[in-house]
Structures are given as C-alpha cells and as structure tokens.
Amino acid sequence: MTTVGPVPAAQPVGRVAGTRPQGASTPAPRRRRRQRGWVVGWLFALPALLFYAVFVLRPLVSAVQYSFYDWNGIDLARFVGMANYTKVLTDPQLLSSIWHAFFLIIFFTVLPVVGGLLMAALIRELRSKGFGTLARTVLFLPQIIPGAAAAIAWVWMYSTDGTVNQVLSAIGLDGVTRAWLGDFTWALPAVGLIGTWINLGFCTILLLSGIGKIDGTIYEAARLDGAGFLQTFRAVTVPGLKQEIGVCVTMSVISALASFDIVFMSTQGGPGYSTMVPGVLVYQLGFTQSQVGLASALALLLTLLILLVVLPLQRAFRSED
Amino acid sequence: MKTSMKERVPGIALLLAAMVFSIVPLVSMLSAALQPQGTTPTGISWPSHPHWHNFVDAWQVADITPLLVSSLILVAGVVPFAALFATMAGYALGALKIPGGVVFFVLLLLGLTLPREATIVPIYYQIRDMGLLNTRLGLILVLIGSFMPFAVYWMRAHFLSMPKELSEASSLDGAGPWQSFVRIQVPLAVPAIASMCLLLFLWTWNTFLQAIVLIDDPSKRTMAGALQNFVGLHSTDVVLLNAGSLLIMAPTIVVFLVFQRHFVKALISGAVKG
Fold it and tell me: For chain A, what are the domain ranges?
C-alpha cells in the first residue's frame, strides 16, 4: 500500500529512459515486424469486431436515431425530438410496464437467491452424493428448456382444470381456485413464479459451487462451537458467497427487467395491461402497432434502466474482494 | 460430526419440496399429453391407458422433422463461426494484447448487459434492407453478432490465464502469429472452447425473440420459435398441445442429461466470468 505513490511516478521515467535508446538502436526489420504484429493482431479481432459492429452496435445507433422520429416503418419519418421519450415517461400504460418489470424482481431475483442459498446450504449439509446429484439435476432442469416452453407448461398448470387448482382443491381450498393467468390481481405474481421456477436451479447450482470453495475447516469450527444450521448459514455460508450472490442477483435482475419469452407466451401482457412488461411492449409497438420511434425510445430507456440498476449492483458485490 | 436424523428431516423435506416444485410442471404436461385426444384433462392424473401414440400424432401435427433439421442448420451456421471468431478475437485481446484493444473490450462489456429488446426493431429493418428477411442466413448473422460480447469475453479470459511464455516461445521459434495460434494456442484452448460451444448451442436452440421477428415461416425457425406458431394453432387442444410442446423441449433435455456435468460447469464458469 505504501508503495502506491512512488511506483507510478517512477515507472514512466524508467520506461522513457529505457525505451528511447533501445528504440533508436533497434534494427529496422524488428520494428517493422512489430508494426506488422499490430496489423496481424487486429486481423485476428476483425471478424468478431465486424459482426459485433454490424449486428449490435449499428442497430443500437439506429435505435437512437429512430427514437427521435415518428415513423410507422413505411412512410417518411417525421422528426419529433424528445416526444417519444416524454410519452414513455408520462403515459400510464407505458410507465406501468416498467413498474411491472421491477415488481418481477421479487420473483426472478429475491425468491430464487434466497431459496437457492437455502437449497445449496441444505445440499452441502446432507453430504449425500447421490441425493445431492439428483437434487441438482432436477432443480436445474427448468433452466435448460426454452423460456417459451416453460411458459406453455405453466399456462397448463394455471388453467382452470390445471394442477395448481387441483392441488388447492385437494387441500380444501376450493374457494381460492381460479384461472390464475386471467385474473387481474394474480396474473402478474403467477407469471413471476414462472421466473422463480426457472432461476431457482441456476442460483442453487452457482451458489453450491461457491460453497465448495469455502474452507471446510470453518464449517467444522462452527460446528464445534455448537452453532446450529441457521447460525452457520448466517455466519459462514452467506458471507462466504458474496461474489456468487452478486452474480446471481445481477443475472436474474437483467432477466426480470428484460423479460420477454415467458410473458409473451403466457399472457401477452394481459388480462388488460396487468402483466405488460417493456419487452413485450417493444415487440407490440414495433411490429404490430407500427410505432417504431416509440418502441425504440422504450427499448433504450429499458437499456438505460438495466445499466443503472446493474452497474451499482456489480460494484456493491465486488468492492471488498 | 454427523448430524442427527431428527435434525436432518426438515432439511430433506424442504429440498424435496423444491424438487417437486421443479418437476411438477413437466409431469403435469406429460400427464395431459397421455390422455385420450379430444378430452379435457384435469390436473395431474395418470391415465389408465396412456396414449403414447399422441406423441406420434403430435410429431406430425407440429411437423417436428423439418423443425429439427431447421434448428440443426441454425446451430451449424452459428456455433462454429461464433466460436472461431471469438477464439481469434480472444487471442488478440488476451494474448497478443493489441494496441487499442481496450476500446474494443469496453464496447463488448456494454454488449454484455444489452437486452435483446434494445436492438430488435432496427435489426428487423436492417435485415429487411439486406434482403435477408425470412432466411436462416439473416438469423444466423444476427445471432453470431449478438453472441460476440459473451464469447469474446470468455475466450479473452482463457487466453489471459495462459502463461505469457507460451506465445513468446513460439514467436522466437519463428512461427508467425497465425501458426502459433493454430498449432499451439487452439489445441490448449479446447476445453474452454468446448464449454463455450455447449452454451452457444443451448442459446441458439432456445432463441425465441429474434426467430419470431426475422422469420415468418415457422418451419425455418428454431424449435423455440416454432412453439409460438404451434400454440397459436392448437391452443384449444390441450392433449396435443402438451404432447407437441414436450417433443419440442425434448432435444435440449436429452442433450442436458447426456452432457450434464459439462453443461453445469460451463454455465457456472460462464456466469462467474460474465
């Protein structure tokens, strides 16, 4: 720590002093070879850069351009300045889609991370290799199937004749059965639970791999001190998994704010606008309602929101490492 | 120090509950898929005579054969090229440390958090102007581009972890960067490349948004993209819908069960690196 000051100050001096005479005395062919090295190095990067520039950066720049225009995709576009942005930030329906996305964080992030921590700690505690592997496989399965397919499975689960209502009736809760995805109050939490279903296995496995890196003797020491499962969980497991928890939170928050497949295939944003999220709205505005400018403004605001939420999160979980 | 049985019971019960939660939707689909066609099934109930033939019918109705072929073509068009370009760029950024590479790298970091929705509308018009709407080529190009941030990041991390002496030694031997790349670096990078390819396969196969936007004809889409059309056509026939959806999911589940360990490892290290 104490050397931080002198080192950067000394380095440039040393480098300048060292390289200048060397550069002057370097034979010309070697220098030419180094220059060619740069060119060759960039040639290696070129295909990736090209694809990224043409199919990600260029559309992103176009989106910025579109967002200042009123355009239906066919006729001449009309410049409207910030009108699309003000519309997103003032229109109650557009605004509510953003709130829904944030509400989904409870189901996409909070439940899977808390549940995943608990599951990972339990799997470690049981120390049964066979059961542990089985549990991991089963919990991970929802992460593998396409989100669109997961939505179809749950549409059937939530339907009037579906398994959710069947179970509720079986335990004497006939009164609460309903068509869950058609219910204005319950549709959004119901969609959220699909996200919990998908993300739980991912968090469990990621956290479990983190637990494997925690020194086993710390667990032994805790046990010898008479700490129970919950105390060990709080004092050893959770603090030891800071980085992994950070990754789980970051990835799942992005999946909540940018959700599309699940909502599109289960409710299309309905009933009414009760489950509308920005992702589905961008699709509808852009491709079925021909409001390209508005769709672009919403998409860019969504991107900005994701950056605003994710960057501080990453800093918070990495700062002390 | 073994935990007593009494202490373990609540833990096991919780774990079992979570496992049931994970598996029930799939069991529920299977149970519905095996009911007699034309009936309206209720929840989970094992039929006395499971109609396995429903899967044969669903295979025809959902037109699975062309879908499988289509998905395989897309995977073959995306994964090898994305892997090659990413490995080359990762080598340039991680081992050759090209001047100005930092700029490229920062741009890629931006791409890592970019949601697909951000670019999907302009991508549609761009692919239209290139005359590639409704072609697999258009979708392949878009997917390669969108996988670049993660894939290059992944390969750069690999090449950064390799000892510097390796590239220095080979350049002293007079091997050019390309020879050193092909003969020495790539063979050593095979495990990293293989894990990346598994992830790229899974993501290509499960691609939904880009598939439904860029390709109208469901038989040219990915398996996941074709689900949208299938549901639209058969949303009232619960039995057939579930059988068809299970068929569409089956390939990824099979691949996952076969390569399970690699998959889990790849996803985890991918997440930690990302």
Answer: 91-318
| The CATH number, out of the four listed (1.20.810.10, 3.30.450.20, 1.10.3720.10, 1.40.20.10), of the domain defined by the range A91-318 | 1.10.3720.10
- Cβ pairs A/B, distance under 8 A: 294
Chain segment B150-188, per-residue pLDDT in tens? 999 989 988 988 887 776 666 666 777 788 888 888 888
Closest residue by Cα to residue A257 from A60, A89, A106, A113: A106
Q: What is the pLDDT of residues A297-310, one digit of tens each?
A: 999 999 999 999 99
Helices and strands, counts by H and E, chain A: 17, 2
Assigned token pair, B133: 């709407």
Instruction: Find, in chain A, the residue whose alpha carbon is nearest to that of B225.
Output: A148
**For chain B, what is the domain count?**
2
CA distance, residue B174 to nearest chain A CA (Å): 12
Q: What ipTM is given for this predicted complex?
A: 0.89
pTM for this model (two decimals): 0.87
On whether the CB atoms of residues B107 and A57 are closer than 8 A, the answer is yes
Q: How many angstroms separate the CA of residue A41 from the nearest CA in chain B?
A: 5
Confidence band of A5 (pLDDT split at 50, 70, 90): very low
- Paired tokens of A119: 């599951």
In chain A, residues with a C-beta closer than 8 Å to the C-beta of B88 are: 44-45, 47-48
